[in-house]
Amino acid sequence: LKTSSEGLVEFAQKSLGLILQVGWLKSMGHWNKIHKEDIDDSKEDSELQLMCNLELSNWEWSLKRVSELLGENKNLEIEIQKKLKSYGAKAAFHLGDWDKLENFIDPTQDNREIYQAAVALKHDKMIEASEYIEQAFKLCEKESYGIGNYATDYDKIVKLQLLCEMNEILDLKNKSINDSFVVESNINSNENITNKDSEERNHLIGIWNDRFLTMESGLSNMQKILAIRSLICNEEELLTWKLKFAKICFKQENSVLYTQTINRLKNFDFKSQILIDKIALAQVECEYKTGKLQQLQVIGLIDELTDKKGVSKKYKSLLYVKLGI
């Protein structure tokens, strides 16, 4: 239906000289086409710009803009404040900015229980987190009764995955707290418990890796999963998933999100040179196809990474084939 409507509009444009209306573009999800570089002073244009950036997953800009609007206008109507807070909460959640999320949570928001659970997990408030996760599961269970089509209801499935992983984080944190009490009472058990905790954590990360590899490539859903995992995973543990996410951003022509993700990874102080090289390699894979990097530059960079063992010789050959060199 969406493809048919797009074709009809394109035909009308070419044959009848039809001027596109913003409402039509919004209905078709063409946020790139209505995205403006400059924000007008009018309320309508400001809100439209904010909606565009939210739909295009430009969370950093959106979070900053919401904070500005709420800070500049102390006498906003209650309903407008609620709407802006819902936008801010959505952006903060995707970014894993739990402190700002806490400030934007409102009792009327759709995902309030999930937001509250995430904040509680961040602050190790286990009982509170458990209660909110349970509430969210009950609400999600009601929504799940209506799941009939995998493709159209995939967001509901991801919400269930999100809650499952929050519950897994809760269990892991509770286990760690309980083990710390045991260690305090029996010093000799320290090494065994530490090893067991590490094994359980690695096992969970392995399960998460399998899930991420089979996820549909919806950018917003992937970011929500990455944000929740950041509650217990460090940047090194998140790197493989974030690189896959960056490549999907690039493939889907979301240059803003691709650039933000790659730059954040490049600016992080990774201690391992191999990890730094992985980021450079991912950037090469993406940007060579756009012509930003010339063939000789790419060959030189891949050879350099191979010498530093950032790229195996076997993968080097596959990479050349993949890039068409």
The total beta strand count reads 0
Strand content: under 5%
Mean pLDDT: 78
Query: N-to-C terminal Cα separation, in Å?
Result: 40 Å
Task: Give the class from helix and strand content and strand pairing.
Answer: mainly alpha
Tell me roughly what share of residues is in helical segments: over 70%
Anisotropy-based shape? globular
Largest sheet: none
General description of the model:
The chain is an all-alpha fold and 325 residues long. Helices cover 75% and strands 0% of the residues. The protein is built from 17 helices and no strands. The protein is globular, with a radius of gyration of 23 Å. Mean pLDDT is 78; it is low at 36-42.
Observed structural traits:
mainly alpha
Short characterization:
This protein has 325 residues and is mainly alpha-helical. The chain has 17 helices and no strands.
Write the layout of secondary structure elements.
Blueprint: H1 2-16, H2 22-28, H3 31-34, H4 43-55, H5 59-72, H6 78-95, H7 98-104, H8 112-122, H9 126-144, H10 154-185, H11 190-213, H12 219-229, H13 235-251, H14 255-267, H15 273-287, H16 295-307, H17 313-323
Helix pairs in contact: 5-6, 6-7, 7-8, 8-9, 8-10, 9-10, 10-11, 10-12, 12-13, 13-14, 13-15
